[in-house]
Amino acid sequence: MRLTLPALLLGIGVLVSPGGSTVWTVTPGGPPLQAIIEQASPGDTLKVQAGSYSGPLVVTKPLVLLGTGEPVIQGHGQGSVVKLKAPGIVFRGFRVTGSGNYLDEENSGIEVLARHILVEQNRLDDVLFGIYLRRAHGSIIRNNEITGKMLDLPRRGDLIRVWYSDSVLVENNTLRLGRDVVLWYSNHLTVRYNRISGGRYGIHFMYCDDANIYENQLTENSVGAFLMYSRRLHFYRNFMASNRGGSGFGIGMKDLDDARIIDNLFIDNRVGIFIDNSPREIESRCTLKGNVIAYNDYGVLLLPNVRRNLFEDNTFLENEEQVAIDGGGRLVNIRWNQNFWSDYTGLDLNGDGFGDIPYASQRFFESLMDRHPILRLLLYSPAVQALNFAAKAVPLVQPDPKLVDSLPRVKMVIPVGVPAPPKHKDPTLSILSALLLGVSIGFTFLGRSRKGRFGSIPKNPSHKEAALPMSERPLVQIKHLNKRFGSLQAVKDVSFEVRPGESIALWGPNGAGKTTVLRCILGLYPFEGEIYIDGLSVREHPKDVRQKIGFVPQELGLYDEMTVEETVTFFANLRKVSQSRALECLCAMGLEEHREKVVKTLSGGMKQRLALAVALLSDPPLLLFDEPTSNLDRAVRESFFELLNDLRAQGKTLIFTSHRFEEVRVLADRVLVLEQGHLVADAPPLEAASTLGWKTKLRLYPAPADLARAYSHLQAQGFDVQQNGSALWVWVLPTEKMAPIQALVDAGIPIQDFELEEEGGRS
Amino acid sequence: MRKIIGTLLFLSVWWVMGGLVACSGASPDQPPKIRYGEDMCDECKMLISEARFAAAYITENGDVRRFDDIGGMFVYHQKHMEPVARYWVHDYKTSIWIRGDQAVYVHSPNIQTPMGYGVVAFKNRSDAESFASEKGGKILTLQDLLANPPQPMMGGKMKMPMKGGVTP
What we know:
Helix content of chain A is 21%, strand content 34%. Chains A and B meet through strand 26, strand 29 and helix 4 of A and helix 1 of B.
């Protein structure tokens, strides 16, 4: 161990790496943590051991702060506890507690005040606001557990607040006892896998365009998600249940344009879906598709001014009122198509899965309730039942239908991939979920019995097509893919699925079949088996599929003599994409300043960015990369990783081939391991590394006099070690690179230098 | 016979409903009641949670409209153009009700309000001027805001300019 001067002054242990960055080990009872932060240099790592440390902490340089054993940062009830003010800070593994109580000062557990900050695996409690991001573009808030203060709801703060911060990822956080999760004035957000309960607005979006919100559980809040004044929000596979406070909406949609509400589950809310003035702009529309809206007081509640919405393939199940118009009136210019209605009384005589007569929502008392909500008090009275009966018998008092679905389904559809209901001491949700499943089976049986009773009639092929899996399907489905080149079988019975927004690495040595799989997805090779992209068969709809894919090959295929601008314009013309879109893609890749440069003068990194700009021209949801960073040096690789992570945060789905573990670890949600054409593993990166025994090779340089002792010690400790000249080569799991260094330091054997030679090599 | 039964049932339920629906109008001279955390804003349908930002007006018919953001009240009024007997807002400093026509308003993009309109009200002009100075805001009157309802603010600019017109 080598001590630096500041460390000597502070009396703490440090380890200096060859790159010049320092690892500081911080223990309670030593110098104040803030003092060590002041002494550390940008790029240093602070390993903070378990114990209690006094806040507030203010970090103004890019440091990595790692808590070991969940050290506690105590705010003592004053102000904000932690402020992160420099780009690139990592803050992981702490408990942060005891912020102040002043709403006006927005006292927070953690304030994130610069770009590209990672806050993960922390536990925050007794905080007014939880994690508060201001102008923190590209930051990641992940795997945190945040519990607010035990205050009345109006006096609580927001457990996550994202404010003027674009391209932020909010992922897999658990939040309780807050006011709202507020996301305002921020574009290209991704909010996924979070569990939010017991607050006012589970999620509150305002002025946030182009966000992806998926697979969140929003339960027992006043409102699950209130989405307002935003464009192109994609809200899918979320679970909204028992949101029954004042407004009581599963989701509220106000002044949204081009929103897509897909494959969500709305159970036991006061109102499943509330819509006001959405869409707002003349040229936009909102799409609500594949949702299950069950056991709510109102399934959908719309204001009479709502126009241009498409309701398709939804399941309306046993809502007290399936669709209501706030204030009464008629709905105009809203399309209802192929929805399942549990109160539909028609039959499916030809067995095509659709009712033979349209569904019409036309109840006399409902039309009165829409105008006078207080009449809901009488909803189940015998008089009202009689009134509805009388209205049917006396057509004069029959209201105009609120809506007509000309092709109602007779079987309900439950989307896949929605998070399971949370376990809760109140069994209502579990009962309702079970009921949903039971009713689903029941209606399926009913559909069959209806068909059986009247005999089976051949299905209408067009209806059969329409009844195929809908929007809940994965973006990529590969079933039993085989590819043979002459006598060589390059791909053998490979099947996998990729969900929207996922990033998948195809891993394997040369010849494993990675690139062949990519080329089959692109339709460049004929193949056996099935490949669907967004539900379209690659074989049957090659042109449509190609529109959905952007591809960046290993050999970039750019024209050396063209300028950057000529290149994107050329490809934009080929793809019938506007010039403005082409320039937008150039700017997004940071190439606007290089538009006059000739391609052959560009660096490898810039060429890669240009190829990516071309791939993004048609704004495809799926991007394929063949060894994306194989020709880039380390610094350029890292900036390219950032770019790809930004694309992920914008909701793009990535599939890339790789043989670098570093690339896989940074970019991939899952690794698909191919060996001689077979898919042999499908796991998250670290799990795959452990399972397959991938090793990273470290070169350690002890002092020459210590070489033999270091070798013996590592061998005795069970490390896979080999002596080579003045260095020791040690192979370790990628997650355990520090272990041999620590072992030597603990044994009093200093390391003068080390190098990271390769990743994912030896197993 | 079926028609007669139906008509009788219809009339009987209508009578009960009439009793439920009928309600007395509010007096414009009394500030309306707001159940914080329960009542919804008439403009945005969100819960009204904080008194200091809340507002209301009482129509000449005695109907009450409630809002979670003072700015939302003026936007709502511009959309519906109801004859209004009295506007009510809260003093930002003390959270007590004050008459809308006697209040002094401060508008600034630097004031965070529930719906981002950036408008708060004061009973005393000196408090308003001091707050406007602190927040870089403008002093406005009720008439100013009725004539030009505020827009949600984003860094001092109106957010979300409309494309192709609004919904008819």
